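Protein: DUF2202 domain-containing protein
Species: Halobacillus litoralis
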Amino acid sequence: MTSKRRLIGLYRNQYGYTFNPYGYDGYFRVQSDQSIVKDIEKAINGEYSAIACYNKLADLAPTQQARQQIYEIRQDEIRHYEAFTNIYKQLTGKQPSPKIDAPCSEQYREGIDAAFIDEQKTTDFYHEIERKAQDLSIKETFRQAAADEQNHAVWFLYFLSFPKKDRAQIRQQDYGATGALNASSLTFQDMLTYAIQDEYLAQARYDAIRREFGDIQTFVRIQEAEKRHITALNTLFTRYQFPIPSDNASQYVITPDSVKAAYAAGVQGEIENISMYEKFLLYELPEDARTVFTQLRNASLNHLAAFRRGLARFEDS
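Structure follows.
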């Protein structure tokens, strides 16, 4: 008598565990497996959304360390997505149709906060799937994925734990003028990126000062001038077909405690800005870029003098 049993199909998931979507007699365990198909579909959508969102958050990250770690977390999510997709296909015989299940914030800190909460919820959700699953390899896949998600939550909590002062200090390492001054080498695109970051930073600083202390004319006039600096740099980005960096400088600015401190911050910012452009001018540059960098350096010299006069009024009083 010919056996009606099918050969058992074995599959290896992303964690190296053998996955058998069939029962011992070779037929689909429809009742038991279908009970978690919806959960796996939800998990796939969650991973798909995280992959997209973490790419955005990495671009917004204030430091290279944070950016690299978020990219590593994103790679974990890609592994999860591929593993869950494979399980889903074997259980249903269909390719999933993933969709974004939640929007991603345009602001770094808000995005990190949302990611921390989501990773905690996802950890619990994956443990729930682990408990439901009957196939041991599915259990192990979601157990390890849950451990990854918990580790991600710890990283996001770490990024959230910096007080504002510490975050601003970290920003000094690789953002704006100080990033340029710390760089051991610079490409032309690097120079444009650091330059526009520093102009964004100045705008954010003046916005914070004006919100706190009102429209002090020195800051109003210089802020208008800084807007023209951004326009000049944008022209170079466009001309040389470089992508214009997004402006996320506001999250790295600390509002000064007093008007005197605001002038002092202005002095420090202009000193760094001038030093940055002087460093750029030591390199071989396109002639139009050399002209723009020189003009912006000279404008910053004027701004520095204005801030020093404002600071002197407080020191003389």
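Remarks: DSSP finds ten helices and two strands in the chain.
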